[in-house]
Amino acid sequence: MKKVIYGVIALLMLSFMPVNKGLNNADKELVVTEMTRTTKHLLETIKGLSQEQLNFKSSPESWSVAECVEHIAVSESNIFGAVEAAVKTPADASKRDLVKITDDEVIAIMLDRTNKAKAPEAFKPSGKFGSHKETVKAFFKKRKQNIKYAKKTKNNLRNHYGEMPFGIVDGVQLMVFISAHSERHTLQIEEIMSHKNFPKK
Questions:
Q1: Which string of DSSP letters, residue by residue, matches 2-17?
Q2: Alpha-carbon distances of 185 from 68, 73, 118, 164, rounded to whole Å
Q3: Which residue of 71, 115, 155, 199 has the fewest C-beta atoms within 10 A of its own C-beta?
Q4: Are 143 and 43 spatial neighbours (Cβ–Cβ below 8 Å)?
Q5: How far is 114 from 98, CA to CA, in rounded Å?
Q6: Using one digit for the tens of pLDDT, what is the confidence trace for 130-184?
Q7: Sign of torsion, CA 134 128 73 124?
Q8: CA pair distance 63, 75, nearest whole angstrom
Q9: CA dist., res. 72 & res. 181, Å (int)
Q10: The model's pTM
Q11: With 70 as the cut, is the pLDDT of residue 18 above it?
């Protein structure tokens, strides 16, 4: 009889304990798949480029391939800061209605290269990593950390929020935004490489 009572008490205690399961499988797969795909696309696009090709500019005011890669690397850490800020605020499922945009729309907005935006000063390339090789290493290291975070986090990012120029987004969408941002600038790199004056190997 005592065992039964103790068992009931244990179940009641568990029912009052906060449960934080992290991302569900669908959200985890979304973030990991997108980040893995866009990482592969970037690395394949810039593979084997010469120094001349990396530094080519179609105009004095435009970025080179190397500068685009540095912008991606810097942004990988800086934008993740928005995720860190979001999870510092307690999870609140009641605010879900504030999110008016879908995951696919976040991606579509970022991949629309007709919608131009000026990078904030902190996101601009400045040669901070010392070389293109070190820049790529810095990007890949942080991207791996971000993928690991998506796999391991105990926070349900759907109930944490951040604000973007196009509206309120949840934490999963912030992670998707990071991935789509790198894809946006990989597309920019491809545009640079398609320029008629881009150096040949």
A1: HHHHHHHHHHHHHHTS
A2: 6, 11, 13, 18
A3: 115
A4: no
A5: 27
A6: 999 999 999 999 999 999 999 999 999 999 999 998 999 999 999 999 999 999 9
A7: negative
A8: 15
A9: 8
A10: 0.87
A11: no
